[in-house]
Design goal:
The chain is α/β, with parallel strands linked by helices and about 260 residues long. The protein has helices spanning about 45-55, 80-85, 100-115, 125-135, 155-170, 185-200, 210-215, 235-245, 245-260; strands at about 10-15, 20-30, 35-40, 60-70, 70, 85-90, 95-100, 145-150, 170-175, 205, 220-225, 230-235.
């Protein structure tokens, strides 16, 4: 058991997809209620990090360590990681034909509640809470009775991910470009939900390039992922610099400064 007080501890995590190494070595601590923004050029490994933590079978953790509290994430199956308090959103949430949204979410919530030693929610209590949460997120209540994401717009799919997040109340959430496809009201809903959940102790790793949303989230730190490692850690000025100059020019500028 680690003596580190961090909620998430990653140590020299290496992840391969097939024969290609995507994450070379990632070391990172995330504290309860902390919000980190992860930025990086296409192909730098941002989504790979989230999917590897979630236990996606195509993402092979070759070496390193990943602890959630005192639990070894890498020793768990994907569903066990979710029950332990990990939530990972999809960059492109898929359809689940034939499975009603309300049944899907309630089943997930009750699995998590069981792992926490809590009583399951009955259908009435779940539906009441789900409708209230959906309203806060600008998601029509009728979406609850439809198959998961089937016929949903891009923004509706992302709001549905936020609905799951809100109701499951995880310890740590990795949100992969949650703003993609969102309108202005959707982005505001993201910020409002994240603020509330942070105050309740949920930690966040948010993958985004949308500077306005990043500024509204007021992250504790901004990380730049490059060639499979965390190349830089900074504050909002790092995000602004990347937004102004782009990843390639920013990295070149940092390299020139280091050589000077």
């Amino acid at each position: 058991m680690s003596s580190n007080s961090a909620l998430l501890q990653l140590r020299e995590l290496r992840v391969d997809i097939g024969e290609r190494t995507v994450l070379q070595s990632v070391t990172l601590d995330v504290q309860p209620g902390e919000l980190l923004v992860l930025m990086g050029a296409n192909g730098s490994g941002k989504s790979t990090l989230g999917l590897a933590l979630a236990g996606h079978p195509q993402y092979q953790v070759v070496s390193g360590q990943a602890l959630l509290g005192d639990q070894d994430l890498l020793a768990m199956q994907a569903h066990e990681r979710a029950r332990a308090g990990l939530f990972v959103s999809f960059q492109a949430p898929p359809d689940v034909p034939g499975v009603k949204n309300n049944l899907f979410i309630r089943t997930a919530i009750n699995a998590v509640r069981q792992a926490r030693g809590e009583e399951p929610q009955d259908a009435f209590d779940f539906l009441s809470g789900a409708k209230a949460a959906a309203k806060d997120l600008g998601l029509p209540a009728t979406m609850l009775s439809r198959p998961v994401n089937e016929g949903f717009s891009g923004g509706e799919r992302k709001r549905n991910e936020l609905l799951q997040l809100s109701l499951m109340q995880p310890k740590l959430a990795v949100l992969d470009e949650i703003d993609s496809g969102m309108d202005v009201d959707g982005v505001r809903a993201v910020v409002k939900l994240v603020e509330r959940m942070r105050a309740e102790g949920t930690a966040f790793i948010i993958i985004s390039h949308y500077l306005q949303m990043i500024e509204s989230l007021k992250p504790d730190a901004v990380l730049r992922l490059d060639q499979g490692t965390i190349a830089e850690r900074g504050d909002m000025e790092l995000a602004r610099s990347i937004a102004r100059s782009g990843f390639k020019q920013h990295a070149a500028s940092m390299a020139a400064t280091a050589e000077a």
